Amino acid sequence: MPIASEYVQLAASPALIGEEMGTLAVLAVNAHDAWEQKIRFFQGSEQYFFAEAIPPAYLSASVLRERC
Q1: Which mean pLDDT values do the consecutive 10-residue runs of the chain (68 residues) have?
Q2: SS3 helix, strand, coil % of the chain, rounded to 5?
Q3: What pLDDT shows up at residue 15?
Q4: N or C, which end of the chain is more exposed by having fewer CB within 10 Å?
Q5: 31: Cα separation from own chain's centroid
Q6: Which long-range CB contacts under 8 A does 26-35 form with residues at least 24 apart?
């Protein structure tokens, strides 16, 4: 199993992100296209994953909501 700090940490859903305060900004990963280009992904559990560095071409950003 890879060491999490050496990899990008991913959650299957924004609801799984534990940030309690501030603005929740989410980077969505086009994992299918990244995988086709040989970016390696590792499953940590049913809902959490790790990946090698993911190039910006496979990312899109959005702000989901403000948290208090």
Answers
A1: 68 74 75 93 90 90 61
A2: 20, 40, 35
A3: 76
A4: C
A5: 9
A6: 26/61, 26/62, 26/63, 26/64, 27/59, 27/60, 27/61, 28/59, 28/60, 28/61, 28/62, 29/54, 29/58, 29/59, 30/58, 30/59, 30/60, 31/58, 33/58, 34/58
CB 56 within 8 A of CB 62: no
Question: For residue 57, which of 26, 40, 33 has the smallest C-alpha distance?
Answer: 33
Measured CA to CA, the distance from residue 50 to residue 10 in angstroms comes to 6
Phi, psi at 21, each rounded to 5°: -130, 155
pTM summary value = 0.66
* Residue 17 pLDDT: 74
Of 13, 8, 14, 16, the residue nearest 34 (C-alpha): 8
